[in-house]
Amino acid sequence: MIESLLVANRGEIARRIIRTARRLGVRAIAVHSEADADLPFVAEADEAVCVGPANPAQSYRNTEAILAAARSTGAQAIHPGYGFLSENADFARTVEASGLIWVGPGADAISAMGDKINARNLMAAAGVPVAAGTTEPAADLAAAVAAAAGIGYPVMVKAAAGGGGMGMGVAVDEAALRTEYDKVRAFAERMFGDGSVLLERYFPRVRHVEVQILGLADGRVLALGERECSVQRRNQKLVEESPSPAVSPELRARLLAAAVRAGEAVDYRNAGTVECLLDPASGEFFFLEMNTRLQVEHPVTELVYGIDLVEEQLRVAVGLPPTFDPEALTPRGHAIELRVNAEDPKRFLPGPGTIKTWVEPTGDGVRVDSGYVEGNTVTPFYDSLMAKLIVHGADRTEAIARARTAVAAFHLSGPKNNLPFFTDLLENQEFLSGNYDTGIVSRLR
């Protein structure tokens, strides 16, 4: 095992990685912006380095500053968390070229999956189901109109270089496509520096189901169950649970096998996620994208399987076998994660501010991965995620009951927060039935 690890991230995920590093006796090094100097992850690290001002481009995405921090502190490895530089293939290559260990998949795998069109084509060639869509970028509006005619409306218009629910729009007819194409292309150029656009068949009623994969040091790719991620606002997740209430044993076997094929197609190492759309009417699923990093929602898999995915990431990165027997790993119970955000619980607009009250729930089967404590300020510079409330129970019914109790016991004031939304969701009959889709939030509000 390594002796020192630099965590190139912030907030709850930096704090969570640091916790595992310290448990393993690994010296944990934090990097932080000027705006984050007072956050818990900075204090809890063995060493911390300020890498720039609040603007992420000048701090958390500042590769030169982060590499300089690694050199000055004697770090052996870099863990990128999620977001920021986690799926930046050039950064991964630079880290390894600098003689450091990259805790993540190889740069080639990141590159292959980073372009959504290339990823679709690779998955189709590997026998992974993909929805009808373009096999090359729609070069202009005329090409997009022609492609949509072949696919059939409605279509999803997506930034080829996008991810995390950003850079997407739905066109129900040609008039809407003309508007969405220009909008998505402009957004993609501004956000990702790549205006490439792809079109896919859009399913009005669909579920978002993903599979956690782990590429081992010996070359094997494992599938560690699926997660249901259909509770979303603006195509971004609010709630995840495992196992999915929509997935039968037969469908699970097909889904997990497809995810393993996806990982094998790019010689995947380390933790990653294969995201799919599931048509509840037909039971068919289609590849959506592969996230070549640790997911925000990884704790639900950890609780169901009884493993520490960050520890497994570190072991893969240095060529060690997993802590568990891949042939004997079995899921137990049900886990649910609620993303506690600094946002309006009805319109979901950001609501930063200083935290006046912060009391986390405790109890059997309750885990809180938080990035803040009382007195901290949630600034507008970064994602609104403050904490992840995760519960585990013997079955879904018990997990939901524990989630209700935990939400009621989570006392938070200062910034706006979405705890009231979760109170409503956990009493909603559609959610309780397990028979819901990605439109549930719009119907609930």
From TrEMBL:
It is an enzyme of class 6 (ligase). Residues 1-445 form the Biotin carboxylation domain. Its EC number is 6.3.4.14. Residues 120-318 form the ATP-grasp domain. It comes from the Bacteria. Keywords: ATP-binding, Biotin, Ligase, Nucleotide-binding. PANTHER family: CARBOXYLASE:PYRUVATE/ACETYL-COA/PROPIONYL-COA CARBOXYLASE (PTHR18866), METHYLCROTONOYL-COA CARBOXYLASE SUBUNIT ALPHA, MITOCHONDRIAL-RELATED (PTHR18866:SF33). This is biotin carboxylase. It comes from Micromonospora andamanensis.
